Amino acid sequence: MSMKRRDFLKTGGALLAAGSLPLSLVEVAFGKESPQNFTFAFISDSHITHIKGNEFVRNWDMGLKRAIAEANLMTPRPDFIIYGGDIAQLGTKEEIDHGLELMGALRGKVHYVMGEHDYYVDLGDYWRKQLGPDYYSFDHKGVHFVVLNSIVTYDEWTHQDWDSPMARMKEMARLDNPNGSPFMVGPTQREWLRKDLEKVDRDTPIVVLSHSPLQKIYKGWNFWTDDAEEVQALLKPFNKVTVLYGHVHQIQYNQIGNISFHAVMATAWPWPYPSTYSQEASHLPKLTVEMNRADPFFERDATGWQFINMDSGNIDVHYTLPDNSNRVVAFNEDKGHPEDTKYQAEGNQIPPQEHY
Questions:
Q1: pLDDT in tens, 142-170
Q2: Which residue intervals are annotated with compositional bias (Polar residues) in the record (predicted)?
Q3: CB under 8 Å to 161, separation ≥6 — which residues?
Q4: Residue 325: which of 355, 289, 356, 353 has the closest Cα?
Q5: C-alpha torsion 16→268→231→216, nearest 10
């Protein structure tokens, strides 16, 4: 569709009047009036949690319902929707069915990414039965999209003598999972990706959709993909590559070589930042806002609306944040990486906490 960016932001502003939106709206722009311009919405990390019978945790349900309702009201209509993984909390049939029932209210095509909470109780069997393959690619208006399952791990961990499949799931469901195992894409998918990218011109913009970040941020929380460098090497020949991921429930951005990394926010809850939770060394890139959350279960913190403008293959991200200043993370052509255009000085941040 053809639309001026100024007008797009104006229509987005009408939605923002209702408050922060727990989803992302992405504009891929090839020029101000190009017929190739298009938008897509991104919803992630709903963690639908079954209690008993037909009871589910209401807060997580409401976050997803709100995202769906607002996606359906968007003008312009997004060309499609990405769901970024962790539709369920413990991967049960009840949770996946309930989440997909809610997602059924979305108007438009949905492309799904698998999260670890969808996977480790039955190794994704029920998710795939309902939704199809967990890695694939598609093309849309000159952009090549790649969906990866980035949350598999080593066979010796996956297939050890567990007391039950749910015991394995609960290990991976923890944030600080010392008995877990690092996520990865794995050799099968990497070989598939190599063959898939052989057919793509080097000047074609690439957007990779994963659940874990395809970079190494903080191993203690599995904000980490063990074979990240191998995946990045396959993407290195392309001029413009963007990785969009969920999993971390907060705003993050980074640049590694030709690849721009941007996290999307959750519809369930926020995770605290590693720098506030532990004194261990962290590889965390600069955060948009060092919130240092005093209450990590404020339901709208780390959930929100973001507009992503992708002009000439690089992106700038407009965030609306609860109880904080709106932020813009834009690709700086001179520096060759994204940066927060109004990064908060230490004295202007929300005061840090010392413990949880």
A1: 999 999 999 999 999 999 999 999 999 99
A2: 346-356
A3: none
A4: 289
A5: 100
Domain count, the chain: 1
Q: What angle do CA 110, 111, 113 make, to 5 degrees?
A: 130
Could you tell me the CATH number of the domain that includes residue 193?
3.60.21.10
d(CA 44, CA 106): 14
Q: Give the DSSP per-residue string, 230-257.
A: HHHHHHTTSS-EEEEE-SS-S--EEEET
**What residue numbers bound the domain in which 232 lies?**
5-341
Query: 328 pLDDT band (50/70/90 cuts)?
Result: confident
Cα 315 from chain centre: 15
Q: For residue 16, report the phi and psi dihedrals to the nearest 5 degrees.
A: -65, -20
54-102: pLDDT as tens digits = 999 888 888 889 888 878 887 778 889 999 999 999 999 999 999 999 9
Residue 272 lies in a domain: yes
In a domain, 191, yes or no: yes
